[in-house]
Amino acid sequence: MESSNDVALDIIITNVVAVFRTRCHLNLRTIALEGVNVIYKPEYGKVLMKPRITASIWSSGKIICTGATSEEEAKQGARRLARTLQKLGFKVRFADFKVVNVLAVCSMPFAIRLIDFTKNNRPIASYEPELHPAATYRIKTLKATVQVFSTGSLTVTGPNVQTVATAVEHIYPLLFECQKPLCK
Amino acid sequence: MAVVDQRCPRCGSQDIVDDELYSQSQLVCADCGAVVSEGLFTTTRSEETNGTDVRFPNIAESNKQPCRNQIKGIHRVRALGRILRLTFLMEETAESYFRKAYEHPNFINVSLQKKEVLAGCCILATCRQHNWPITMGTLTCLLEANPNLIGVLYREMVTTLKIEAPATSVIDLLEMHCQSYKLSPQDVPEELSETSSNLTKRGSVLLELATDAWLVTGRQPIPVLIASVFLAWQSLKPTQTRMKYSLARFCQIAKVPKSSIAPKRVKEFKEVLCKLGQELPWLRGAEVTLHNVVQMVDDILNFRLTLMQNALRSHEASLASETQLPLSTEDCKPGLDTENPTLDDAVSSEPDKDRIQQQGVVDPTDIVVVEGLSCPARDKDLKFSQSSALSRGKRSLFEPPSVTHYKIRRVQLPMKEVTGDEEISDSEIDSYLRTAEEMRDYVEAQEELDSSDEEI
Questions:
Q1: Which residues fall in a coiled-coil region (chain A) (predicted)?
Q2: What is the tally of helices (H) and strands (E) in chain A?
C-alpha cells in the first residue's frame, strides 16, 4: 500500500478470523471420534479441526475459523471444513460467512517516542508503560485498534483488510512527526 | 393517630392506640394495656381512621442517600488521600470523581472488589491531573489488587467520566522515588550515605540520557528508576566500597524492594555510557568496559551532548569504511528475494550494502515493496525482516534494544513421517528381545498374579 509520501510499507496479515453457520445441529462426539485432527473439549462444548485453519465448532452449528492469512483463504478453508463435515454425514450448508477480525503487523523504519505520540493524540491514544509497552490508538470511525511499539512495529486489528490498510495510512503521518532520530 | 370512639372495657379510658404487632394490628388501651380488639380485618374505613398517613415524598425519595458501599468507598478514597498526603483540593476532586463514577451505569453493578479498585483509580486520575507523581505500582501495593485490573478499570473510568489525566513522565517520578531510599547518615555508614537531592539531580541527568538512547520508552518505569538511582549513587562517590556493592545489596541497605528487571536496565545503561565514554579525548583510546565506566560517569554526563555527537560521527565513519567492501548490486527492486542468500551471509559480518545508501540517516525509500497485503513465503519474509532489523540496529548507534537483540523465531522442525518401512538395526531388535533373566522374572510374576486371582 503506497501512502502519499511515496513510502512503501509492508503490511503483513497474520490472522483472519471468520464465522459461518451450518444451519444444522452438529454432533460433536461424532466429529471427535470420526474426524481427523480433532481436539474435543466437552467442557467448552466445542471441537477444533486443523487443516491449516483451526475451527471451533459448536453443536448449534456455529463455526469460528482462525489461522487464515487472507480473506480468500479464510473462505476457502471454511468451505473445505464444511465439505469435511458433509463427508462425516451432517447436512451442512455454507451460510452467513463473515470475516470478523483481521490482525496485521507492520513495521515503521524509524523508532517512535511514545510519550510524545500520546501527548499529541490525547484522548484517542493511551499509553501505560507499567501495564503494556505499547501505546494503543483506537480509531472509532474505522473500528480499528493500532498498537504502537517504541521500536516502530505496529499491530493493527480491524474488521476487514481494507480497514486495516486505511488505519495504517491514517496513523502513518501521526507517527512520522513523533519520530526523533538522534541528530543533535 | 385518630382516637377510636371506644372506651377500654377495663379502665374506661378513651386513650386507645393502634398498635402494630408484627402484621396484626391491635387496639390497645394506653392506660392499662388491655387489648381492646385485635385481628380486625381492616377496611378502608378503619384504615382511614386508624392508619398512619404516609406522605408521598417518603415513598419516592428524590434525594437518594448514598448506599453503604458508596460511603465505604468514599472513606477509602479519603484514607488513600491521607496516606499519600494529598492536598485537600485533590481529595475533594477524587471524591467527586468517585461519586460520579459509582453512580454511572457502567460501574453501579460492578463487583465490590472492582469498586475498591475504582477508589484507587480516582486517586490516580486526580494525582495525574495535579502533576503529583504516583505510579500504578504504588496503588497495587496499597490496594493489594491485580495491576491488570487496575489498568482496565482506570481506562474505563477515564473514558466514562471523560477526564483528561496526563501521564507522569519518568523523570517526574524520580524525585518521589528517590525519597523512598533510606540512605541518610543515620541509616547507613558515612561512606555509603547520600542525600536524596543529589541522587535526584544525578539520576535525572542519567534518565535524560537514557531517554535519548531509547532505553526508557515502552519499559516499566520502576526498574529504570532503580537502575538510574543505583548508578547515580555509585558514580557520585566511586570509591572501592561503593563499587563493591551489587544492585541487590544496594536495594537491601536502602530498604527498597528488589526488582528482577533492574539489573538488565543497569547493564543497558552502562553499555550506553561505554559508547559515550569511548569518545572521551583524554582516554586516548583506552578500553572503556562495563566495570570502569562508572568512574567516568561524572565526565560523561557533563559533556554528554558533545560526546553523543562525536559518537554518532565516528559510528557513521566506521559504517562508511565498511561499505567500501564489494558486495552485491545496489538496486532495490522487488527482486530482493533472490538476494536474500547473500544478505544472510553479509549480515553476520558486515552490514548489507543495499540498505546504506546514505550513512546514518534513515532513508525511507530504501524499503522494498513486498507484495502489499499478501503473505509472502514465510521463510523468506523472516530472513528479510531479520536482516533488515539487524542492519537497522547497526545503522544507528542508539536504537531500542529490542531492535538490536532481535529474537530469532524458532522454526518448528517438520514432523518426521513414520511409514513403518524404515530400516531396523540389529541392535534395536536385540533390545526388544527378552533376556533369560527377564523371562524367568516374567514367568514368576505371571504365576503369582494367577494365584492371587484364584484367591480372590
A1: none
A2: 4, 10
